[in-house]
Write a structure and sequence with these properties.
The protein is α+β, with helices and mostly antiparallel strands. Helix content is 27%, strand content 26%. It folds into three domains: 120 residues, no CATH class; 85 residues, PDZ domain (Pdz3 Domain), CATH 2.30.42; 228 residues, 2-enoyl-CoA Hydratase, Chain A, domain 1. The chain is globular. The relative contact order is 0.16.
Length: 492
């Protein structure tokens, strides 16, 4: 972030000296935190969090009184959760910022599969894990794991209920080695690796009469997905695709830039080439007034040329010639469809007919930015003083804040997924146990979408012998992201 932005907010309360652990330093106009190592870490982390939320937070006005009473002695992780606005489930203080960034980028250590938990007995004492999908070249796929496989034991142990979080976090989603015993009698062993989980899971073209229908299963808006998305849509164009089934059932979001790239590939080509308004950004009252006075445009426009930085490397990308001219889009969605996925639907809705298939989406209607504590203490060193800046960087190394910065709206100012998510036009249930792999025209949700396109599969999904039991929610943090890159923040 740049020092010249909104400095009148940044007196920085660097005179937080009313707190007992804060003592004036030898440098006029600054203060240092003293006490135990934990007090110093918490104190500087709170300086960073409090002032960052005071400047950028979407609901800054609504939490002003909480900001005024913020104490440097409090646990900063819990404090951020406590002060965030009631509609905000996503702003989070991060103690391992590099791991958080890797997670969003899709490059964390993993076995490369996702799953859903089901009960095994009644009364409930034991769970099983049904595999939803595996990533290409992942340890899971190489070991032979596939959608529909049912995991009965993990490293020789059953999955207990209700105390299942240990096995889920530390073994199915963590650790270095995993052995699973499946319902069909197989035992599979795999080692976790640090890999890029390619979110372009699969793409296909279906034919219904004289109409070509493109199908894309996409699991995350990572920056590294941009080039492959362009190639997929070039293939759709060569095939003469006119309708698109966009499968976002497991997509919790990601980077706004990737969303803009995808929108330029799907939206009406004449609007893309004309640079029409794609979306608009609504920030807190202070920032909005600042942008207005500066004459800053907070709209986002369709475009075909993109430049961005990924993994420290500057990249340029063009979508020219890759737009196939989609006339209608069908979106497969579930409660796991969130953030950038919802924004894509909202932003394209004024420009083309869209049918929604599945279940109500997550309802994340805002955009976050990833702020790093060390960068904050560097950028505001002149207000904080040299000593505080250096101490702040030392004690908040690898700390960060994922903070809700703005609300997205379409070109007409509407946010269709606010506050509770997008509602389906056609109900359908994701069923990993239906007997078909993703991309198979008989798979439950894809079959529903294809039927709406006029395509009928040769076979029908296998009917469950009885109603599926209720799924058990995973004890996971809310992974719903729509993240602006620094260069996308207006006026900064």
């Amino acid at each position: 972030m740049k020092k010249n932005l909104f400095l009148f907010y940044m007196c920085l309360l660097a005179l937080w000296a009313c707190e007992k652990v804060v003592q004036p330093s030898s440098e006029p106009g600054s203060s240092v935190i003293e006490g135990t190592e934990q007090q110093k870490t918490w104190g500087y982390a709170n300086v960073f969090a409090k002032n960052t939320m005071n400047l950028y937070y979407l609901w800054q006005k609504e939490i002003a009184s909480s900001l005024d009473s913020w104490k440097s002695t409090e646990d900063p992780v819990e404090k951020v959760r406590k002060v965030r606005y009631k509609d905000d489930r996503w702003t989070e203080m991060i103690q391992d910022f590099s791991a958080f960034q890797s997670s969003v980028a899709g490059t964390e250590k993993t076995y490369g599969f996702d799953f859903v938990l089901y009960p095994l007995d009644n009364p409930l004492t034991t769970l099983c894990a049904a595999v939803k999908f595996t990533y290409e070249d992942s340890p899971a796929r190489k070991a032979g794991l596939k959608r529909g496989d049912v995991i009965m034991k993990v490293n020789g142990k059953s999955i207990p209920y209700p105390n299942y979080s240990g096995i889920v976090f530390n073994e199915l989603l963590g650790g270095d080695k995993l052995t699973v015993e499946l319902k069909d009698g197989r035992t599979l062993t795999m080692d976790s690796v640090e890999m890029y989980e390619n979110p372009v899971l699969l793409s296909k073209v279906f034919t219904a009469g004289d109409k070509k229908i493109g199908y894309l299963h996409f699991t995350s808006f990572t920056l590294d997905a941009c080039n492959e998305l362009v190639e997929v849509f070039r293939e759709f164009k060569q095939e003469g695709v006119s309708e698109l089934i966009m499968d976002l059932r497991y997509n919790g979001g990601g980077y706004v830039l990737t969303e803009e790239v995808l929108a330029s590939l799907i939206g009406p080509e004449e609007e893309v080439l004309a640079g029409s308004v794609l979306s608009t950004m609504v920030c807190n009252e202070g920032l909005s007034e600042y942008f207005k006075k500066q004459g800053t445009d907070t709209n986002t426009y369709f475009k075909t040329e993109f430049s961005f930085t990924s993994n420290g490397q500057k990249q340029a990308l063009s979508t020219k010639g890759a737009n196939p001219g989609i006339q209608k889009m069908y979106v497969i969605m579930t409660a796991s469809t969130a953030s950038a996925s919802e924004a894509l639907v909202c932003d394209l809705n004024p420009y083309m007919p869209i049918s929604l298939i599945g279940k109500k989406t997550h309802g994340k209607f805002c955009t976050g930015i990833m702020m790093e504590a060390e960068e904050f203490f560097d950028d505001y060193a002149d207000q904080l003083g040299k000593t505080v800046s250096e101490q702040g960087k030392k004690y908040t190394k690898n700390w960060g804040l994922y903070i809700m910065y703005s609300r997205f709206a379409d070109k007409n100012g509407r946010t269709l997924c606010m506050p509770d998510g997008l509602k389906p036009d056609y109900e359908a249930e994701d069923d990993p146990l239906d007997g078909f792999q993703l991309g198979d025209p008989s798979e439950t949700m894809l079959a529903r979408a294809l039927a709406l396109c006029g395509y009928q599969a040769d076979t029908k999904a296998i009917a469950a012998p009885s109603k599926r039991p209720e799924r058990i929610p995973l004890p996971l943090k809310d992974k719903a992201y729509r993240i602006l890159l620094p260069e996308q923040m207006p006026g900064i």
